Amino acid sequence: MNRNRKVELSTIVGKGSKVKGTLFVEGGVRIDGKVEGVIESHGFVTIGLSGVANANIKADECLVSGKVVGNIVCEDALELDKTADLTGDIIAKVLKIHTGAVFNGNSSMKSEIKSSSLRKIIPVKNVEETKDTE
C-alpha cells in the first residue's frame, strides 16, 4: 500500500457523526465518526484515528488507524496502523501490521478472493461497550 498515492474520497463520515446500517460507497470512504453495520466500497476504506466501526468491512483496500469490531475482506491490501485496534477476522491478499497495532482474530491471505469467501463474513455482534476516545 503506497501512502503517498492519491486516493479519491467520495464520502467522509466526520468526527461526531454516527451511521447505522449499510454504508455502500462506489469510491473511497473515510470514517472519523462511528459506523455500526456494514461498510462496503469499490475503493479505499480508511478508518481514521477517531473512527470506530462496529461493522463488517468489504473493500478493495483498507487502512485502519482507529477501532474496528468486525470482519474485514479486502480484494487487495489491508494495513493496520500503529494505533489500530481490530477485533475480527481478516481475508486479504496483502496484510501489513505496524508495531503497536492490536489485532485479535484470524487472518487468511489469499492471492485470489472468491466471491464465496465474501459471503462468509459473519454478522457483527452488537458491541455497546466501545469506549469513546473523544
Structural overview:
- With 134 residues, the protein is mostly beta strands.
- It has one domain.
- Helix content is 3%, strand content 52%.
- The protein has one helix and 13 strands.
- The protein has one helix spanning 115-118; strands at residues 9-13, 18-25, 28-31, 34-41, 44-47, 52-59, 61-64, 67-69, 72-80, 85-87, 90-97, 102-104, 107-109.
- Strands 1, 2, 3, 4, 5, 6, 7, 8, 9, 10, 11, 12 and 13 form a 13-stranded parallel beta sheet that branches.
- The longest helix is centred in the last third of the chain and has 4 residues, at 115-118.
DSSP summary, beta strand count: 13
Name the structural class.
Answer: mainly beta
Distance between the termini: 28 Å
Indicate how many domains the architecture comprises.
1
Q: What's the pLDDT, averaged over the residues?
A: 84
- Share in helix: under 10%
The number of helical elements comes to 1
The portion of residues forming beta strands comes to: over 45%
The Cα radius of gyration reads: 13 Å
SSE order, one letter for each helix or strand: EEEEEEEEEEEEEH
Low-confidence runs of at least 5 consecutive residues: 115-124, 126-134
Using the alpha-carbon principal axes, give the shape: globular
Could you give a short account of the major beta sheet?
A: 13 strands, parallel
